[in-house]
Amino acid sequence: MDLTFSKEDLDFQAEVRDFLTSEYPLAIKEKQDKRLPLEKEDIISWQKILASKGWFAINWPKEYGGAGLTPTQIYILQTELAGANTPILIPFGVNMCGPVIYTFGTEEQKKKYLPGILNSDTWWCQGYSEPGSGSDLASLQTKAELKGDNYLVNGTKTWTTLAQHADWVFCLVRTETTDIKQEGISFLLIDMKSKGIEVKPIITIDGAHEVNMIYFDDVEVPANNLIGEEGEGWNIAKFLLMHERTGIAGIAALKRELKRLKEISSDLIVGEASLLDDANFRNKIEAAEIELTATEFTELRTLSQISSGGAPGPESSILKIKGTELQQSISELFIEMLGYYAHPFLTEAELGSNASIGPDYAGSAMPHYLNFRKVSIYGGSNEIQRNVISKAILGL
Amino acid sequence: MDFNFNEEQTLIQGQVAQFIQRDYEWEKRQNLVSSELGYSEENWKTFAELGWLGISLSEASGGFGGTALESMIIMEEFGKGLVVEPFLETIILCSALIDSCGTDEQKSEILDQVIAGNMHLALGFTEPQSRFNLADVTTEAKLKDGNYIVNGFKSVVMNGPNANKIIISTRTTGKQTDKDGITLLVIDVNQDGVSLRNYPTVDGRRASELTLENVTVSSSYLLGSEDQGFQLLEDAIDNATLGICAEAVGAMEVLYKTTVEYTKTREQFGQPIGKFQVLQHRMVDMFMEYEQSKSLLYMATIKNVEGSQDAKKSISGLKYQVGKAAKFIGQQSVQLHGGMGVTDELNVGHFFKRLTTIISIFGNTDYHLKRYSQL
Q1: DSSP-assigned states of every residue in A236-280
Q2: Which is the most buried residue in A41, A143, A223, B92, by most CB within 10 A?
Q3: Which stretch of DSSP H or E encloses residue A106?
Q4: Domain check: are A11 and A50 in the same one?
């Protein structure tokens, strides 16, 4: 057992740092540091910069354009990227649809879709949840009926993140009504420009337009947009969930945010001492930091298993729950720290500008806190995660 | 970065696990607890023969030159069997301390005997008023004609009844809570003026109240330097904290798994109670607390072996997490076993009791969260 990085790892770390110094665009960095919302173009251009270095599709096998990094190098890269506060990558193409296509798709499908994912020219979104199917995802009702060479798709998808930017959507659809609901589900790729698709925004409690409803009204989808076999959709969905293991807890970003929380609260003077010196406040920060360290090492144990050729062990399933709990508790500590100055509700234009109210770090804290209530709900709610652990690991 | 045990470590782990499984059945363990001695001398000799007693001690002291990692492996397995042999006290707490700062004479007199399995040790580091503050020492030692004359009282000295020699913290100069002015001395339990009131503790182990009245200790039994004992004491407690956390991790693993298995067989309302979601989620939380504790145990142990800058801080973080997890897993294991959980017959209650004492041994969660923040 050891915690040291090898010389190759340290060289790699230096390479990442050099890359960030020279390649991370100032305009994007400024927005990120002020916690301002990014434009679609900002995200795409950053993803392209990473891709040109070969560090975008880090989890992909080399033959499909992956980086061929070791698990330790992936850990280093993610730590450095988050430490520099670079934008979060949009996962729907690179971490979700891509791996599904190179695993289950035909050669033709790989040729058609993978390049657009690798170079970020195609923006993907995820059509899973429906108004009547949340945690019970397999009850989904969106129908795809085969009519000649096309599927005719009817139904509604919801909570679709950034569908307003999307070129394509990967959907779970019902191709057959079966006694066992999981068996009639298929995995279908749909062009968002198709006739009969309508996207409607859902405004969330932070005031943002991040998620959407997608309505499908007699949408014609070529039958060869089906991935895998008809009825294989549920297995593909499970594969997809398992695929996004490492990095799911967002440890590096959490470390950065906790550090920032400590810095700001140590400068905030309340009476005689700083807020960070207040025993009650400090205890909460220290407790979060210990939990974060524990989660980090739970992730590292998983990585170590993978690099020594093993499969990720049961501890990897903890990462989603613990990571999201920490994201929420740290965002909560931010608004707790701010007191009244967490309350002004600023427009995007006011955020980070001279028209901002209170300290310049204040404006984004509440929207962030409100937005992060989602993290224990999405990606399989934390209650569903507990069901999974209970069944798969404890055998209950 | 690597979290795997090397070949030798894997071998030791297998050896200890086999001992627990083959020679430490629950009934045997309970018989030991209710015996006069409170543990088995025969087992202790086996530990000596297998080389476990000297495994983490330096080669210069007659040990095998291992590290806290080997101790961790042994203690984690011991935790699974709820082993009552005083490995923590004699080996991890006291022998490591003598190994780190003892004179050659002290090492050959004491450690040779310990490694051979012929001597037991204890550390008297707490007093009725000291709580978890290692620097709060009123037991007084005055130098007179080359000897220390010791007067005072040490409370809840773990393994006191079995110890041949006890290391005590004494105050030679300074005020009651000064870190400077603390001196470590080795006393023999048969010396004049040493009296022990022995008793069992709730976890099936043994401890003593130690009264010292005009005990004469030759300066050759001074451990380290006069007045400079605090750092040695703190290092020894930190090292033992790693050990006891490993024990807790082993115990928590058994406890959560035992509980999961029990809920698969216990039926109420016409089905196994493990089918109830409210209990499933509770057990998932127990499992996660265990895994998180294990992660910090590995982290803190490796950091201490590697001498990282934040090695001590990592120990307090670990003890905080282990304290939190031990309380949750212990209490919920009893709860999910229902009435059976509070019976003396079932092992669950005994695991719970050991975890409960571990929570406060070497400092509880409040103490360690504060220390974490100060380090």
Answers
A1: HHHHHHHH--TTTT-HHHHHHHHHHHHHHHHH-EETTEEGGGSHH
A2: B92
A3: none
A4: yes
**CA pair distance A155, A133, nearest whole angstrom:** 12
The answer to whether the Cβ–Cβ distance between B280 and A304 falls below 8 Å is no
Per the CB < 8 Å rule, is B288 touching A300?
A: no
Distance separating alpha carbons of residues A127 and A213, to the nearest angstrom: 10
Q: Which domain holds residue A328?
A: 245-392
**For residue A316, what pLDDT is reported?**
67
Query: Which residues of chain B lie closer than 8 angstroms to A289, CB-CB?
Result: 317
Task: Indicate which CATH number applies to the domain containing A205.
Answer: 2.40.110.10
Is the CB of A3 less than 8 angstroms away from the CB of B5? no
CA distance A93 to A102: 12
For residue A148, count CB atoms less than 10 angstroms from its CB and return exposed for 0-12, middle for 13-18, buried for 19 or more: exposed
Residues shown for chain A = 396
Instruction: State the complex-level ipTM.
Output: 0.92
What is the enclosing helix (H) or strand (E) of A199? Answer: strand A197-203
Please report, rounded to a whole number, the percentage of residues in chain B having pLDDT higher than 90. Answer: 99
Q: Which of A74, A75, A79, A293 to mutate to test the interface with B (most CBs of B within 10 A)?
A: A293
Q: Please give the CATH number for the structural domain made up of B122-228.
A: 2.40.110.10
Average pLDDT over residues A85-108: 95
Hey, what CATH class is B7-119 in?
mainly alpha
pLDDT at A241: 76
Cα separation, A185 vs A237, whole angstroms: 10
Shared-domain flag, residues A266 and A127: no
pLDDT in tens, A143-159: 999 999 999 999 999 99
